[in-house]
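Entry: Sigma-54 dependent transcriptional regulator
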Amino acid sequence: MNAEKKQSSRVLVVDDEASARSGLEKLLRQEGYTVDAAADGVEAVEVAAERPPDVVITDLKMPRMDGVALLGKLREQDPALPVIVVTAFGDVTSAVLAMRAGAEDYLTKPVDFDALLLTLERALERSALRVEAENLRRQLRERQGEGVEGLIGTSPAMQKVYRMARQVAGARATVLITGESGTGKGELARAIHAKGPRAKGPFVTLHCAALAESLLESELFGHERGAFTGADKRRIGRFEQAHGGTLFLDEVGEIAPSTQVKLLRVLQERTFERVGGNDSVTVDVRLIAATNRDLAAAVQEGRFREDLYYRLNVVHIDMPPLRIRDTDVLLLANHFLRRFASENHRKIEGFTDEARAKLIAHRWPGNVRELENAIERAVVLCDDARIDAEHLPIDAAPVAKGALRIPGATMAEIERYAILSTLEATNGSTTRAAELLDISIRTIQYRLHEYGLTAKSKRPPAAE
């Protein structure tokens, strides 16, 4: 491995023995690696969150959190992170357990440094090959029209999303992603980051609705030692963690007004103070926010700052619900089937005709997340070569009253059914319905007037 690659590789050394830890740290630095060290698993998790490593070398026997437990925590942060475990001679059983839990390799004490260097280089090379293979798979999916950076779908609604994502990826502008829960807002944010010039920088996420107001401020901006009870040391917040990369704030509409003011200042001035501190911290961060709420309505109701809304809404991308992506349902279902069949070591070829019909007919209120969970459950329950309708944990779609009969329906009846069904799927949005139907908004409004309806009708009647 050349010197340039070593310098760009960050190694985290974890050992409760100070002499072993410092000695290994010194030797690896001499070899050209960037090295962080931690005295136990608990400290290692914190270090890895603030400065993500490329590979971890950890002792197995440690207080507070042993190496196997640490391996599990690190896998939650990064499932592909290579971890090398070090165990005492004669305690190979523990090493085998660690390997089964996902460790890359193991070494016995006293550690032969040459063997460690060889193991380390191999782990980094395998990791680089996995990244390269995933990049090639993504490029192939893009050429086949399946999406951008892992997003999947060929429907017109998703093609519009892909175009917007490609256009905005190279810019620094803040992006606001809206859409129902489960539509893939987080995946779109990752895709925008991966396609842009900050791709090699960190991608840091924070779910704003999951934290109380006091905790959210500390998570965003960090805190100084003694800032509040329990703050026994300085903590770096998500903005600092994302320096040089992208910060994704999910459910940004849930942020309290007092924190909204501080977030607005960061977007305007790119500086902030940690909780309990006076020193200004300057960051270079690209912000992507997401919400399933109507922020414009929240502004009107006084629950969300108007100036912050316009700062977030520089570029707006709306993720379409799965119910108007009917051509993508089977494509996504097959993708999840391949993934879960591989993870569960099952040989399942596909879906029966009855299962495919059930998948297409379902309205998917939980969107892509619901579909993913349904396919995972079906894979676990399926004991045949193909998934059948009975394996899918979804209700069969009821037959609509006055449903169209083809052949047997007139063109006027088909047009009425298409317009009203599309308006229902888009929650009454004439703009989105017009885009999906490829007709003008004026045509929809004229037809609604003919039907004696308005675009705000929540549940338009089916075609008679």
